[in-house]
Design a protein that fits this description.
Two copies of one chain form a homodimer. By secondary structure, chain A is of the alpha/beta class. Chain A folds into two domains: 146 residues, Lyase, Ornithine Decarboxylase, Chain A, domain 1 (Beta Barrel), CATH 2.40.37; 250 residues, TIM Barrel, CATH 3.20.20. Chain A has twelve helices and 17 strands. In chain A, strands 1, 10, 11, 12, 13, 14, 15, 16 and 17 form a nine-stranded mixed sheet that branches. In chain A, strands 2-3-4-5-6-7-8-9 form an eight-stranded parallel barrel, surrounded by six helices. In chain A, β16 and β17 form a beta hairpin. In chain A, α2 runs parallel beside α9. The longest helix of chain A has 22 residues. The N and C termini of chain A lie far apart (59 Å). Chains A and B meet through α4, α6, β10, β11 and α12 of A and α4, α6, β10, β11 and α12 of B.
């Protein structure tokens, strides 16, 4: 049985890296990341000023962010730390979107200092920003359609989500901005996460295009960009099909011609804020089999744990696993692949058919490039692993060192125990 | 309406701390922690050599561990970092139990170096330890009863859990140990987590007492301690009732007299490994209201997030909330209390009736002393908060500083971006 999700690097490459760096480690594929950026840019090349603001939370590593910056992406930041990362790699001004919620003053201040686009989550934030730091020239609002929109399976029902303005609040909000002298306006929503049905994004465009047209008509407020949010999913399972970006781009182009041009809103910039689709498929968690266990089920124990990758444990998420060098061996052993955390759900796979695995074998866990290392914790005293980058020239570069025990103890003072 | 879960410190104390330390912070109550230790010790005072090994993973702070050590508790460690913490506060030898699973060599080595009791999770670990570091004089096994036992709601079905030996493996394992010259033996299980029904622990004692008797009879292997595990729950909800420790201790005492004495196993040490019941009720997350939001639901935004306390977000766990100074105000506002993470489930309470909350009010989140700070992550670039201890003498001591951005960036090298 051939591997339905082939690796983008050779077995020898991974083995060589695993000799130099102790497992587990993350390995990112620069070429793949660049290709994802280019596919998305190409699908929206019809749109003047199109930009995908890379959702930094997915992979908050400056070396990765720097690659996507070279591909003309911006940064979507949700906190001061993420803004600092953007600044460190040379992003500033409207290359940065600040989309946060329940935001404290110091984070708004950091965003304003960087000149980032302020995308406000709540109508009360107009006063909050105005009083604490002053409203900037350009302000965007996040729209929450509530029951007017279904949301997708992952993100849940919009009316139960804590984000955004209602429609009434949007109109009231833009009116207030205008009265207070704000001159430039944006409109944003985010109603999907990890969605593979391209129609979802087309419908989101329709919703925002319609809103932008009505806002112009009713308030004489001209929205200059709509941010359709992120949420483009990736095919975690072998049978999943990636979103056809070109088709989505084309359909949104048609809607643009049908709705935006006649409304007199052209040119209107279309922007996105995808993270997962940019880095998700191009990051791999490489781990080593250290134990076998046979009790009421069969277990393969690896040296990674939920501390390295939480998604299977907390969401039950599927991540494909390739046993290096055994891609073509019969996948006839049904096992749970587990880490060493004292947590029942510390399992990377449950009842998965894999080839016979020997102690020392390398397991490559796919699609870990987004919301992987970034969500790691240190529960049970576990240390987070290194991140490595397979560069386009074939060299492997360490882009984040593994944590040490000194890191783990950094916030503690042991003086009284000496 | 009076607060059904009164705080152990005055409003003035918390306000004074909140002036000195930026919210959010953890505040632990030394007196309460000591009382929990003493209640448990007292309930088992009939048992010679009784010890609760405090589950370090619950609250891996050396200052807390040092308090429980003064109360004669040991440490239950699951990793090298936890063993290092135990060593730093002066615990060693059989004051430390090493209960891990899918364990790498270096962690077994650290445990052996400290003289900790090795509690093996799997039959293959006998050879693994023997070959890699040699078997110590005393070895314990973790038993997984499989379908012979129900498990409790939280920990799930034992036959689906990755832990422990089957019964057949136990007998085979002790036989092997004996052949290889091991002279001292322990027996452990852990089938409950956060269980409030005291009978559960009595039944676990019955199960292990019966096993120990049969092991003596069939193998002439004398178990010297049974570790009944941890899992004593705490009353998170106001209507929950704490476990009657004295009653549980007495019932286990009776079983001991009925089963262990006639089996010729007396003296058999009874030990436990509770973490949550020791620190859980005595740690509070103090956070401040920074925003209100009214869309399809009513929200109170606080300056803590899932990064500080994950249990509500990932388990839907209930944590009681006291609005400081408003304990007696009518609780007639139904709100979601939310953090600032870009995660839908970053909510500390959903549809909770609370008093009218003003911006700046302090909210005290109860029962956060175990698996609280310890499970924190840095997702969205959030920093983990400080831990403070209200000492018995009334002074407040910082026992862990808050993280800084330098901590967040510690594993990154920005040289190439300068």
């Amino acid at each position: 049985m051939s591997n339905p999700k082939p690796l983008p690097f050779s077995e020898a490459t991974v083995r060589a890296v695993a000799e130099d760096f102790p497992t587990p480690f993350y390995l990112y594929n620069e070429k793949g990341i660049r290709e994802s950026c280019r596919s998305l840019n190409s699908a929206f090349s019809w749109s003047d000023g199109f930009r995908n603001y890379f959702a930094v939370k997915a992979t908050p590593n400056p070396h990765i962010m720097s690659i996507v910056k070279e591909e003309s992406l911006g940064a979507d930041c949700s906190s001061r730390a993420e803004l600092m990362l953007a600044e460190k790699i040379g992003l500033r001004g409207e290359q940065v979107m600040f989309t946060s919620n329940n935001t404290p003053v110091f984070e708004f201040q950091a965003a304003k200092d960087l000149g980032a686009v302020l995308n406000l989550d709540d109508i009360t934030h107009i006063d909050f920003v105005d009083q604490n730091l002053g409203l900037p020239e350009l302000v965007s609002f996040r729209y929450n359609p509530g029951s007017a929109r279904e949301g997708n399976v992952i993100i849940g029902k919009p009316e139960e989500a804590k984000y955004g303005f209602t429609e009434d609040q949007l109109f009231e909000g833009y009116r207030t901005l205008k009265e207070r002298g704000v001159r430039r306006f944006g409109l944003h929503t985010m109603v999907a996460s990890n969605e593979l049905d391209g129609s979802f994004f087309v419908e989101t465009a329709r919703m925002l295009f319609d809103l932008a047209a009505r806002i112009l008509q009713q308030l004489d407020v001209r929205i200059e960009f709509v941010n359709l949010g992120g949420g483009i999913g990736i095919p975690y399972r072998p049978e999943d099909k990636a979103v056809d970006l070109k088709a989505v781009g084309d359909r949104i182009h048609s809607l643009y011609d049908e709705m935006i041009v006649p409304a007199g809103l052209d040119p209107l910039r279309v922007v996105l804020e995808n993270g997962r689709m940019i880095t998700g498929p191009h990051g791999y968690l490489v781990t080593r089999c250290i134990h076998h266990k046979q009790i009421y089920r069969n277990y393969v124990g690896v040296d990674a744990s939920m501390a390295n990758l939480m998604r299977p444990g907390i969401y039950g998420a599927y991540h494909h696993i390739t046993v290096l060098g055994k891609e073509d061996a019969p996948h006839n052993k049904v096992v749970d692949v587990v880490g060493s955390l004292c947590e029942n759900n510390d399992k990377f796979a449950i009842g998965r058919a894999l080839p016979e695995i020997d102690r020392g074998d390398l397991l490559v866990i796919h699609d870990a490039g987004a919301h992987g290392h970034a969500m790691g914790f240190q529960y049970n005293g576990k240390l987070r692993s290194a991140e490595l980058l397979l560069q386009e020239n074939g060299d492997v570069k360490q882009i984040r060192r593994a944590e040490t025990y000194d890191d783990y103890f950094a916030t503690l003072d042991f003086a009284e125990f000496d």
